[in-house]
Design a protein that fits this description.
mainly alpha
C-alpha cells in the first residue's frame, strides 16, 4: 500500500504541481495545495489507490482547493477593502471637520481685527490686490498698508502659534476661497 502511494506520488507530484502553479501563479501556494491533495489521498488511500480515476481525483482536488483558497482570499480582500475605505472616509471626515474648525477660528480672528486692518487684509488675501493697489484704493500710503498687514499677520500668528503649517496653507491656498 505504501509502495503504491509512493509510486503515485512520484508519478503525479510534478504534473500536479505544474497544473496548480498555473492556477495560483504562486509556487508556495501551489506546493501547499498539492501537499494537501496528497494528504487527502493518503487518508482515502484504501478506496482510491487502485482506482482508475486517481489522477482525476488529484487534479479535481487541486482545482477545488484552489477555488476554496481563491474565495477565501476574495472575501478577505473585500473585508480589507471595506475596512480601508471606512478608515479613509473617517479620516477624511475628521480632517474636513478639523479644517472647518480652523477656518471658523480664522474668521473670528479676522473679525476681531481693527476695521482698517481687516479691510486691508481682505483686499490683499481675498481680493488679490497688491499693496500699491490697496494704497491707491484706500487713499493711504504703501507703508500704512505694510504696517496694517504686519499687524494682521502678527495677531493671526499668535492665534495659530501651535499650527504654523495651517497658517501658511490658509494664506497661500485657501484665503481666496474663504468668504469672510
Amino acid at each position: 500500500m505504501e509502495e503504491d502511494f509512493r509510486s503515485v506520488f512520484e508519478q503525479l507530484y510534478g504534473p500536479l504541481l505544474a497544473y496548480t502553479k498555473t492556477l495560483t501563479n504562486n509556487h508556495d501556494q501551489a506546493k501547499d495545495i498539492v501537499q494537501n491533495c496528497f494528504v487527502t489521498l493518503w487518508q482515502k488511500r484504501p478506496d482510491l489507490i487502485d482506482s482508475p480515476t486517481l489522477k482525476q481525483f488529484l487534479f479535481t482536488s487541486a482545482y477545488n482547493s484552489f477555488i476554496d483558497l481563491y474565495r477565501k482570499d476574495q472575501l478577505k480582500n473585500k473585508i480589507f477593502d471595506e475596512l480601508k475605505y471606512s478608515m479613509a472616509k473617517e479620516s477624511l471626515m475628521e480632517e474636513v471637520s478639523h479644517v472647518d474648525h480652523k477656518i471658523q477660528k480664522l474668521k473670528l480672528v479676522v473679525a476681531k481685527l481693527p476695521p482698517k486692518c481687516r479691510e486691508i487684509l481682505l483686499l490683499n488675501k481675498r481680493d488679490g490686490l497688491k499693496y500699491k493697489e490697496i494704497a491707491l484704493k484706500l487713499n493711504v500710503s504703501e507703508k500704512t498698508v505694510e504696517s496694517q498687514m504686519r499687524i494682521a499677520f502678527k495677531k493671526i500668528r499668535e492665534e495659530f502659534k501651535n499650527d504654523k503649517q495651517f497658517f501658511v496653507i490658509i494664506f497661500n491656498k485657501l484665503s481666496k476661497h474663504i468668504d469672510y
